[in-house]
Amino acid sequence: MSQQYNPVIGLEVHVETNTKTKMFCACSDDYFGKEPNTHTCPVCLGLPGALPFTNEEAIEKCMKIGLALNCKVAESSLFERKNYFYPDLAKGYQISQYRWPLCVGGSIEVTGKNGKKSTIRINRAHQEEDTGKLTHVEGRTLIDFNRSGVPLVEIVTEPDFTDTEQIRDYAKQLREIFRNLGVSNADMEKGDMRLEANISVRPVGQKELPNYRVELKNINSFRFMVAAVEFEIKRQIEALESGETLHQETRGWNEAKHETYLQRSKEEANDYRYFPEPDLPSLAVDRDLVKKLQEEARAALPQTKVDNLVKTYGISQESAVTMIRQGSDPFFEELVAKLGQTGISSQIVASMIINKKIDWQDLSTDDVVKQLKAQASQTALSSDQLEKAIDEVIADNEKTAADYKAGKENALQALIGAVMKKTSGRADAKQAAEIIKEKLK
Amino acid sequence: MPCALASLGARVRNDIFINMNNLTALSLTETIEGLGKKEFSEAGLNQAYGERIKKLNPDLNAFLEVKENKSGIPAGIKDLIAVKGRQMTCGSKILEGYIAPYNATVIDKLKENNISFIGKTNLDEFAMGSSGENSAYGSVKNPWDKNKVPGGSSSGSAVAVAADLCTFALGTDTGGSIRQPASLCGVVGLKPSYGRVSRYGAQAMASSLDQIGPITKTVADARKVLEWISGPDAYDSNAVSASFKSTNRKDLKGLRVGIPKEYFGKGLDAGVEKVIKVAIKKLEDLGATTVEVSLPHTQYALATYYLIITSEISSNLARYDGIRFGSTRDKFGAEPKRRIMLGTFALSAGYFDDYFIKAAKVRTLVKQDFEKAFEGCNVITGPVSPTVAWNLGEKISDPLTMYLSDVYTIPASLAGIPGLSVPCGFSQDLPVGLQILGKYLDEDTILSVGELYEQATNWNKQKPRLQTPERSDGGQAKL
Fold it and tell me: CB 3.0-4.6 Å disulfide test: which of A131, A264, B134, B431 passes with B129?
């Protein structure tokens, strides 16, 4: 009988935060799709004599991310230099964090296979900078430093994942959090958000971690990551079953062949020679600021946000979740506020957004308000139709009508509600109220 | 006239030449005064220096690049400080042909004070050296004796000032690179407190120690340049926000001068020791009280320093990876290669705790030594260098002996405190510098001590005799 194995998986997520300027210089952070090497300066090009200076907006956004993941913001945090050679690394080192990360010790609940909920511990969320970008053209390599020095937050979990559903859910939740916090668009295709997984397997019942791990790198979609992890679990179990010893190594994903492949073995692994960045003082963290950011982070958490939307607008849980995932919830809130007392219910607005009856990505809320009002007037009831509906409602609700006559103001609302229902929301509530009042004088 | 001066040997009292015909001998302060009084023009001033450079530089090799301007007061800039549009070799072949596309903060600040840049000065490659012999562009010569080294690494800056090739110069000091060549060339050199002057635009050797500072003809000039270049800078996060303020101390009464016993032991040349002791006596004559102090961790400072700086160097020079800047890594000279290797080793997994971390801890102890010593004194004085200038080639093949020549300057660098070298006499006809160390950010006191000492002794007026047609015909400069 063969041995049963459990996967042990930890994730590293890199997210570029959408600050105005880069992490350590004043160049614009908005580099995507721009002409190569136009968003550069002595600092992000690593020219002789240039020195870094810390972008406070980026530090705030990193703290927000950490706080949203229930991390603590460290009392004292320090940048370090991660030394390695690569042509896209202008200074020959990356300014990163190692021993003194900004945010430590968080957690997040994920849903795995069969809907099972479990807690993933977050080791850290730290601040670092992105590298330049290499393009290989006709046997030559071009370097674009526009991305060099863009703020990057790295979120590292403990090896708490045991199945790929958890990974998918974790990555989706992170993306929502980033978007809700307004710290990143988290667009994987643009490279805003990148995933790396550390995978090993161990016999069921074994408590200690395996003495190796395989790092999966440079995978640019949720789907590929899930496929790669699944492939890797299978490959590792098969290897162990056939008596092989597994080693520390880095692997990539070949989508065409649908398999992982060796990129770098342990012998070639870098010794990053971390040491404290002498050009930057330690980060002074303002505790009042942390408090403020904590509130903002909580308000932006998906569940808190869902609850708020449901409570405030009386829409369904499902609609709230969908809009948050779409990122259409700010549009929805703005639109509802502008529509005011037009009689179009919030739930109808939400449904229209979700079902793409309202083009929220391209139109302004003002445009939509105009559009809806125009439609409403076209489909509005004629006064005859309205009067007819009201008559029917009064006939069907004799007791309520009597209550109103007896002076119960609440009863009016119930009648209006019934009219709205009868007319599928097409009636003008104000007009209906006046007619009811008239009829029940 | 030459007969009357013969008794001074190689030294020439030059102050009697200070007149309209010898603008290059003027101090910065005198130059500003002269320009203010319209005694001469900026164009004439620049021309006078330009002509002198043409005559003397081929021999001294102080400047790597010269640009004669029409205006401004001409200063020499160590060639690892960025001046927009000008070459910046850092004394290395790896940066040959590199033109800096931006100004260092100190350069912008000097420009605001009507300073122009007559040349980029030679240096030990990437500021690594104590003799000027590590430059990839040839050794710099000591103007007092061209067979001797000028000290380093701000070799060209010290020589350019000593030989009157510029009004003043900027150097950088990581472990003594301003103070030691100033001492060996008989000029004033100030290493400010760490953080006093923005490092933005100066190629880093060891980022946690590097400071830009002036090399000048008088202490008053050093004070003036520090006033110009110091202050907070958004581009250097370690530049402190407090700006430098001068108080004018009139005498040394009540001043307590600490004499560290560790700076007067084995290795200190007897001739140098004698000169230093006479200088200290002079401070007492001027009203100061001397007290013995102890800096017990001095013996560990050198080892600590070389672990920290090589670690930082290995990272700071990683950008010269052969991909940009046009040259491959084989263009690095022997000393940068040695330090990159040492530093890479010290930071490596398995060695980091034993080397870098331990060094960082000893550095704190060295700093505490000074804090304790300063509880009982206002300044600390001693020699800058254990010897006077040595022969070219004498120590170049023995790096450890070379490293020992910075043994008295390194501790203050580790502690981040300011240090001044003031000319205080001669031994074997070569200049000796008195080192005056101050509390962190207390440049004012060491400058005051230096200034009062200088006024009482005039050692700074001694100039090397350089055989030039200009001098023999009375220093004609076309105005």
Answer: B134
Q: Which helix (H) or strand (E) holds B149?
A: none
B407: exposed, middle or buried (Cβ count in 10 Å: 0-12, 13-18, 19+): buried
Parse chain B into domains and list their residue ranges.
Answer: 2-472
A259 and A399 belong to one structural domain: no
d(C-alpha A328, C-alpha A312), whole Å: 16
Residue B143 three-state SS: coil
CATH topology of domain B2-472: Amidase signature (AS) enzymes (3.90.1300)
Q: Is A401 within a domain?
A: yes
Q: Nearest CA of chain B to the CA of A264: how many Å? A: 19
- Mind telling me the catalytic residues of B? 78, 153, 177
Total tally of structural domains belonging to chain A: 3
Identify residues of B whose CB sits under 8 angstroms from chain A CBs.
80-82, 88, 90, 95, 98, 100-102, 104, 199-204, 206-208, 234-238, 311-312, 314-315, 317-321, 323-324, 344, 347-349, 352, 356
d(CA A2, CA A205): 14
Residue A95: closest C-alpha in chain B: B315
My answer on whether A362 and A406 are in the same domain is no
A355 and A239, same structural domain? no
User: Taking CB atoms and an 8 Å cut-off, how many pairs form between chains A and B?
Assistant: 92
One digit per residue, the tens of pLDDT, for chain B of length 479 reads: 343 333 444 444 444 444 445 899 999 999 999 999 999 999 999 999 999 999 999 999 999 999 999 999 999 999 999 999 999 999 999 999 999 999 999 999 999 999 999 999 999 999 999 999 999 999 999 999 999 999 999 999 999 999 999 999 999 999 999 999 999 999 999 999 999 999 999 999 999 999 999 999 999 999 999 999 999 999 999 998 787 888 878 899 999 999 999 999 889 999 999 999 999 999 999 999 999 999 999 999 999 999 999 999 999 999 999 999 989 999 999 999 999 999 999 999 999 999 999 999 999 999 999 999 999 999 999 999 999 999 999 998 888 888 888 999 999 999 999 999 999 999 999 999 999 999 999 999 999 999 999 999 989 899 999 865 444 444 444 33
Pick B319's closest partner by Cβ from A46, A54, A281: A46
Asked whether the beta carbons of residue B319 and residue A92 sit closer than 8 angstroms, the reply is yes
Q: Give me the domain span that covers residue A335.
A: 314-369
Residues of A in contact with B88 (CB under 8 A): 48-49
Same domain, A57 and A182: yes
C-alpha span between B25 and B474 (Å, rounded): 12
Do A20 and A109 lie in one domain? The reply is yes
Helices and strands, counts by H and E, chain A: 14, 16
Where does residue B160 rank: exposed (0-12), middle (13-18), buried (19+ CB within 10 A)?
A: buried
